[in-house]
Amino acid sequence: MNQDTIEQAHIPVGEEHDPRDIDNGNIDLSPEPLPLAPEPQEYPVDALGPVLGPAARRIAYHVQAPLGMACQSVLGAAALVVQGHYNVKRGNIGSGPVSLFLFTEAESGERKSTVDNAALAPVRAIEAEQREQFDNLMTQYKANDEAWELRRKSIIAEVEGKGKGKQALSEEQQTALGERLAGHDAKRPKAPPIPNLTFSEPTAEGMYKHLKTNRPSAGLYSDEAIGFFGGHGMSDEARGRTIEALCRLWDGAPLTRTRGTVGESGILAGRRLSTHLMMQPVVAEKVLGDTLLQGQGFLPRFLICRENSLIGTRFLADRDPRDSVENDDAIAAYRRRIDSLARQPLPVNDSGELEPQLLTIEGHSFSVLSELHDGIESSLVPNGEFYDVRAFASKATENASRLAAVMAVIEECDEITAAHIERAGQLIAYYLETMKARTEEAQQDQQERHARDLLEWINTHGGKLNQRDFKRLPSAHRSARKARPLLDWLARAGYLRSTKHGTSGKTAEWVVVTHV
């Protein structure tokens, strides 16, 4: 091909052309391939068992929300109320918490708040009850503390009065006073716990204080997790401390705090935290691509769910307006169990540390767990199925044990059966495949993925786009500065052609090219 032909082949963006103008007709005018969006897996709701599974189905039905989102929400509530009472022992390969870290990706308008409120309703009811009592408890505490303070001063004043005009205290008197004050100090009234079982935007310091002075078991739950990832706890100077604290809590390891002020340092053991973070795809993309969150092992601890949107299909025809989450038998049974566990006193020692009961995976159940572990482990070799998500897959067996334990307790079983392990394996298979697909998509060229999404939007809105309609585009592309580079790329790749130009010479309208 001569130079003139080569120059002809580089057709300017937006100019119409006829393939017959190309010498010999040997130019491939088919469009460049765009990356395909991975199809989300179907959440294995039946694997959640006879209590959580039906509740998730009915919440999803009544709210008209993605089923996986409802499954994550009921699972998050279950982990919250179980984690303070039980640990799980995985045969001879270790033991630890049953806490779960859950991550749900859903579009704005997908009814995340409604689903989470339905699942956490028993927890929110208890918090409301405690708020009603809190003011009276705080009033009584302040009065008792003031009386305690006056009593302490009177003890000191009594000794000072005896020594007035006399010699200084002897060592024996000093020792006696110290012992008397120590005994009094040990009886200082304690402030009532803040009536929150959960929080949404904590710092490392805030979590430490909450778990020390309030309940030793808590939850980090947010239906708009941009508030967490954009909050003080994840600022540049604080995010390392927050991530470390969360990782240690997932592991069941003590939290340490070092301060210059006397009494501010310490080690906090026997605490538990479960997490459910719900966020929009644009936020999830940034979070999943964050090298610090990946590198410190924060994200590999999470069980990630993403499903197709239901927006545009949530019709009210043929629905009985009298049906709701409030009068559904399956949801009522689930809420009774969550409420019962949430109201049980936590097993704590004199230091305020949790002393959970141990559930052991043994016998045939351990054999099933071993098969699950070995199957995953064999896929972590280079070029193995889960090699690219090996950090997540390496924690899959432990997460399966936690899932099995939570389900066993919710179902009021005395032991973790092989069936619980098998169902946990189905859930882990879903989470592995979801993480694998999400990782593969993240590795795709970002511009090509955005171009694919924009092309899909144009196709579903009549196959034509005018520059006047930029404001109607999805938020990620809703400006000329964002949209035009992608439209130019799609035009060069052969997916769009220009049909109008503006006074400045720029393309003003694009139509989708239909390819044979």
Brief descriptors of the model:
five-stranded parallel beta sheet; 48% helix; 516 residues; three-stranded mixed beta sheet; single chain; alpha/beta
Low-confidence stretches: 1-23
Radius of gyration from the CA trace?
30 Å
Q: Given the helix and strand composition, which structural class is it?
A: alpha/beta
Q: Give the tally of β-strands.
A: 13
Task: Tell me roughly what share of residues is in helical segments.
Answer: 40-55%
Which strand order do you get reading across the main beta sheet?
Answer: 4-5-8-3-9
The number of helical segments is 18
Average of pLDDT: 86
What is the straight-line distance between the termini? 26 Å
Strand content: 5-15%
Question: How would a crystallographer describe the biggest sheet?
Answer: 5 strands, parallel
**Overall 3D shape:** globular
Description:
The chain is α/β, with parallel strands linked by helices and about 525 residues long. Helix content is about 50%, strand content about 10%. A hairpin with an 8-residue loop joins β6 and β7. About 35% of the residues are buried. The N terminus is likely disordered.
